[in-house]
Amino acid sequence: MQPLAYHNPLAVDFLQGYEQQNFTYPILGPNSNGPLQAVTNMESLLQFSPSLEGNPVRTEDSPPFSVEQPVMSPVISASTLFSASTLAEDSKQLLICLYFDHIQPIFPMFRKPMFHQRFHENQIPESLLNAMFAMSSRFVPTSDVFRVFGKFSTPWENFAKLAHQQSHNRLEENSAICLDDIKTACLLAIHEYTNYPGRKAWMYVGNAVRLSLASRLHQIDIKGNSCGLSDADREEWRFVWWAIWKLDSTINVTAVMPFGIDCHTIGSALVSTTVADFTNGITKQSTGTLLDTDSAKSWRAVREMQSLDPGDGFNIHLLAVSLLRGVSQCQQRLYANSTPEEIARMMALRNTFSCMRLALPAWYFNAAKRPSEQFHSHRHRLETIIMFHTAHLIINEPVRTLGTEQAHRITGDSLSCWQSSITYAEDLAGVFHHWESEYFAVADPVISCAIWHAHCGLTIHKMSFTDDGNSEVATRIDNALDLLSISLENFARWWQIARILQDSLKVFQMWSWVHLDVSKITEVVAQIRRAINPDSVEPGVVDVSLICSSIPDDTLDGNEENRVWTTDILE
């Protein structure tokens, strides 16, 4: 009987960290059907179980953890609960299966047959497994949570902490960067951002980008840079590169920050294989097609890209992300310095969506599922449509330009564009008429940020326009808000970032009774655009004092209670 795990020094770090938070650990006895007692600190745990000092805590023949089957070891150690290397084999297989079911469709980076072969040969670094399990453990069925992790655990946090420490140790060794290192960094960045979209998570994204650039992942198809890779391996590298690029794009659009990748230096072709085929280990010969980096004229490449698309819309989705990236970059430049060149670019980007509609087939923007459309293809197309709508929602929002007299005011042209922005927000909400409930567990969690943005825009519109008693318009917007709210609620079942955004909307809705000064929409929109910025103390939270300062005085006339309340907040 060979021991699978000995006491891991890293586990001590976790126990000490949890001791400070006064967490408890379930202790199971050899003849117990459940917890015998709970310990709250490192000292009492070691006193209870001296076997932690170098003795095996779990063996190949040990039964899986469960309430029904007693565990023969006197303690479920932190290393057993929180390390990929010490999980029971069936638990590992469960987490791997969940990873390929829920994460791989969003960020495809693995060929399943090759992964399983390397896994059985113990060639997968533990840091990568821990990063994968940090993502997939969120999807463990409730009935299996205690069996796999024990009653008092949040496994994703522990897997991520281990993966980060192991990845950091490897970087300190200054060894050559391998593809596994980049995958680990990418998954850690995704985990951190979807768990809490703060400054640390944003830094993780930058780390993943720098690792990929250092390994020249962005120039796979430049002549002389083959590195002796087979065609199948090169296709895997392309998938990993575009996962990194998409992460850099969507996160920095959300954070309203400069991008870490210069698209003009990209020499890696788009993929030529569907995500499903790639996952099953099937790859096709590369077409050598590069992504058009001119987002204002990206519609010119749509038909060629669609004819060369592997068949699931993956590359068209990247084109939509590229457009969103270009829109955000243009808005950031206009905010800093409104030059004639950037104004012209803004006008071109506003025209792009109309051109895109004409360039793509007539059925593409009809969100209904086509009879021949597969589950993931339809879900991917809906995500792409949402990206297109988000891009045009943002590019039509009024821009607050620093250092100008109009920095905080909305002009007539801007007001017209704002109305267009609201139309795109309604269209975005309309996509969820055709969204299947099963999609929430396999869709990109950053979609929740797009939902939040559209919801904020529609709420501001309700607060600033009366629509002259047009009940049809008011009802339409209310219906759109309901669709967005229930969609965000469904994302919140799986992703913490959606819960954070959902909570912020509840606070925002408390102010929907006020009538905002239309002239100050620009300032309020600018604050919302930067609500998930790395500088934010509370990501996703809208500054209530800013809303209060935008309320016309006549709104508070005759309501002394509201006047006192808003005055107190401003002070």
Automatic annotation (TrEMBL):
Q: Which GO terms describe its cellular component?
A: nucleus
**What keywords is this UniProt entry annotated with?**
Metal-binding, Nucleus, Transcription, Transcription regulation
Q: Where is the Xylanolytic transcriptional activator regulatory domain?
A: 98-270
Q: Matching InterPro entries, A to Z?
A: TF_fung, XnlR_reg_dom
Superkingdom is: Eukaryota
| Localisation | Nucleus
Question: What is this protein's record name?
Answer: Xylanolytic transcriptional activator regulatory domain-containing protein
The source organism is: Pseudogymnoascus verrucosus
